[in-house]
Amino acid sequence: MRRFGILGLLYFVQGLPFGFQTTALPVYLRSEGASLAAVGFASALSLPWMLKALWAPAVDRYHSPRWGRRRSWILPMQVGLFLACVAAANVSPDEGLLPLLILVGAMNLFAATMDIAVDGLAIDLLEEHELGHGNIAQVVGYKVGMITGGGLLVWATESLGWSALFWAMAGLVLVASVLTLLWREPQERARGGSEAPAHLKDVLGLLARALRSRSSSWLLVFIGTYKLGEIMADVMFKPFLVDSGYSPAQIGLWVGTWGMGFSLAGSFLGGMLASRVGLLRVVFIAAVARAVAVAMEAWLAFAGTSDASVIGVTAYEHFAGGALTTAMFALMMSRVDVRIGATHYTLLATIEVLGKLPGAWFSGVIAEHFGYSGLFSLAAALSFAFLFLLIPLSRAPKDAELEPEDAIRREGKAEGVVDGEREVEPEPE
Hints:
- The chain has 429 residues and is mostly helical.
- Helices cover 75% and strands 1% of the residues.
- Helix 13 (279-303) runs antiparallel to helix 14 (307-334).
- Residues 399-429 have low confidence and may be disordered.
């Protein structure tokens, strides 16, 4: 349980600056008189989260044996995040917005780099049957951090002011840093494997070899497309509710508050099932449930809305989405090369993010031309269609194309481990 606790704490810290970036920063900028264009361009400050795969190999390669392979990066990034929060708390409005924007960009850089190391730590610490529980810590910890940095602390600014928000974030990061300093990183990894690659080129070589396998190709295609329909519907669902006559207060309560609660509940269920039923099976069940949720949004557009129907669809949609996210992240962790876990998983996570962008970008254009009913119908159709990618993915076992010495490193290989629904036989000596 201590492992899940430290992982949840670290993911919580990472969620603080991203929650501020996506939710609180637009409110702050607008309240300080920034133009809408400036508010829009400020979203570019989150670029480190999209580009982190570029420096992930360095995180896998370089570390101090004294501090541990992952703590060598986590602790300095926490210190940097703490100092950036303290500096932001001391920025005066008279200095303009540029110093604050630079500091927010630095917060995202520190948090995104820490995320690489923490993902690698999760892969190092967790046995394969623990990945479901581990990703509960990941998803729930991160979402609670986002709620805190982008919701609760913003709510408190009405009485305490914006400076207090940054001091509070700094205090939370400091507490996490002290606990991380007191925690000792295990030397041996749960799923075996050799020591960290000796050279940066070795990291890149292992990554290239892992990506060449047939199973990896199907995994990359699925990761890059499975949320395309979901994001199309998500981006336009709130404007749909506005155009249906609902107030911002109602939308904020139903979608932003109650919806997040159901999302967290779904994340718990998805993680629990992933540890008991099998990762691919849970991903399939959750993906079907999520596709049904998008179809229900299309039904609202065709049939009309009521308070009860909107609340019901919102609750179910967030619950299914939370379950799918947790199960999918656990599946991704199970498919990485543990020797370069941070680099490999970061690349998969980046592809997952980039795969959603086209749906987000063009959702408004599609809605303008075909209406909300047409958009949600297309989103539902895509959500169901991409389920068929799970068929070749399930038929391409993750270890089938590894070299013998690589296959042996998988935990339990010598005993024959059930992976999903297929038992992996031990390799002959």
